[in-house]
Amino acid sequence: MESYYQPGCLPSNRIKAIQELTEGQQLANKLREMLGQPEKVECDCKSVDSIAVQILGMFDNTLSILNSYSFNEYPDILTEATRYNTSSLDYQKSQNCGENAKFVRSEKNKRGCYKRRGNSSTFMKITSSLIDDGYVWRKYGQKAILNAKNQRNYFRCTHKDEKGCRATKQVQKTNDEIPKYKTTYNGYHTCKKSHEVVYGISDSLDCSDNSLILDFKTNTLIEKKQVGSFFHSSKQISKENFSSLGLSQEQCSSSDNYTASDPFTQLPDVPLEPMSTISDYEDMIFSGVFSSSSGTQGYEIDNMFESYDTGDFLLQL
DNA sequence: GTGATTTGACCTCT
DNA sequence: AGAGGTCAAATCAC
């Protein structure tokens, strides 16, 4: 059978994807090696975490690459295009030999078209105050949620357009007497910073941190140290947003100083803020498969937090 | 003028 | 049908 590829138009995204996967494979082998030496793992848990994080980040990068480009190459992506209600013509335009081609929506009346992130990685954390996770977010919506007193705020990475970063997050103030802020992160940041050298979280990783994380896929508890530290703060929440979240501006002094610490794609670019600024209160949940789009799941999780959040530990059953 | 936020509309999913 | 997630025009802020 003939190939779809046209001569001279070898999809660079395919090369990129292969590179990512190859690198991931090498790291997986390295990880396997390390895990075969328990004594080494014990004294170098940061490295193990770091490698795991890198591997996960590469998977996501690969998925991002594949989802961002040609569907001829990856027929499954045609489904994505269909779900976006995008005409095949438009999609072809965007994928035709265009390394930086962007998906262009031709029709104006396609509002609300989106793909629920059923299989993307989702993380959730609860904090007593809004914190800066080091990324630049743009608010794109807010919504009243059933059984929630406060509206949920939706943010996407500012670099979505320019770099195709698909990371989004949702922030919702809980109904608790002492309100907490539940932040759900969807996807990984692919907007790597230019001076980023390696993946990792080593600087911010504290092996003594014994917070608990729930893996929704396996319904097992994981020690937080197995996953690493998390995002550190968010910026760019307007005063209106703060008020809508019930915060004063003092609490939320927005900062343009980015201190990125994404356990899956980013290294801290600059010395991180002391962990105490966030770890006093926050809990985090990691899921490889959990989809926040499910109202039922989300509500159950809300209840879960309300029932088991003890401050220093978050117990999920 | 440019970029961010607000907010109603629209779409998907359950 | 209702809930949740996203879009994009209008508006705001710098």
Automatic annotation (TrEMBL):
It comes from Artemisia annua. It holds the Pfam family WRKY. The keyword DNA-binding applies. Keywords: DNA-binding, Nucleus, Transcription, Transcription regulation. InterPro entries: WRKY_dom (IPR003657), WRKY_dom_sf (IPR036576), WRKY_plant (IPR044810). SUPFAM superfamilies: WRKY DNA-binding domain. Residues 126-189 form the WRKY domain. One of its GO terms (cellular component) is nucleus. GO terms for molecular function: DNA-binding transcription factor activity; sequence-specific DNA binding. Coiled coil: none annotated. Signal peptide: none annotated. This is WRKY domain-containing protein. It is found in: Nucleus.
